[in-house]
Amino acid sequence: MIEQDTPVALVTGAARGIGKGVAASLLRAGWSVALTDIDEAAGQAAAEELARLCDAAGRIEFIVMDVADEASVMACLERVEEDFGRLDGLVNNAGIADPDNGPVEQLSLEAWNRLLGTNLTGPFLVSKHSINLLRESTGAIVNVASTRALQSEANTEAYASSKGGLVALTHAMAVSLGSAVRVNAVSPGWIDTRDPRQQHSDPLRQIDHQQHPVGRVGQPEDVGAMVVFLLSPAAGFITGQNLIADGGMTRQMIYVE
């Protein structure tokens, strides 16, 4: 059992990319983390890699979970309660990341339902079954949405709808849960989720970085830093909000010459 005062976070879709970066940021901030993913092999590998970041008080544990399967979600939360004894933060990060669904007139209902089932129904299910534990700790939820909830490329209807729905779910739950559980969203922009070795061997173009007023494409830890803040007491007056982490990209006017 972890030390009594060590906060515990559940991070979904944490085997790689943004979820893994969020888990790393929480571990560095002194949290214990229940790292979950549908990919058991990748999740175990991520947990082993991140274990070195744990201090004497906290720990990391991998639990396999399919966020779109309610029985799987319930089993995961039972495991969290049994193994950690508490839950202080939930990060709904799991999702199908490819936004391109092809022409909308060719988008099948099956593909639409699959994406929304993971990206929107999944956060609803995990939140639903986490609320009792979060109430006990006066905890917080952070939903990982996307700047695509606010702007679009062509042929991204399913993904944009799922992330727009997630932003709406965020403020709806924030109002329903009130002071018991704060609920916020983070909307990342362009985050380079590739393995660091691949980023080094195949760097992005300078023009990719120049599209961002801060001068670079984002990293998973950029999202992680915001999540750590939103789950912390320092964010105690913030709920129902969607905070954008995109290096200013969505605020920069770009003209084709």
Please describe the structure with a list of short key phrases separated by commas or semicolons:
alpha/beta; 257 residues; 7-stranded parallel β-sheet; Rossmann fold; 43% helix; 14% strand
How would you characterize the overall build of this protein?
- The protein is an alpha/beta fold.
- The chain has a single domain (8-251), classed as Rossmann fold.
- It is built from 8 helices and 7 strands, in the order βαβαβαβαβαβαααβ.
- A 7-stranded parallel beta sheet has the order 3-2-1-4-5-6-7, with helices on both faces.
- Helix 5 (157-177) links the parallel strand 5 (140-144) and strand 6.
- It is globular.
- The model has no long low-confidence stretch (mean pLDDT 93).
Report a brief summary of the structure.
Helices cover 43% and strands 14% of the residues. With 257 residues, it is of the alpha/beta class.
Write the layout of secondary structure elements.
Elements lengths: L7 E4 L5 H12 L3 E6 L2 H11 L9 E5 L5 H15 L4 E4 L16 H29 L2 E5 L12 H21 L4 E7 L7 H6 L4 H5 L9 H12 L10 E4 L12
Parallel strand pairs: 1-2, 1-4, 2-3, 4-5, 5-6, 6-7
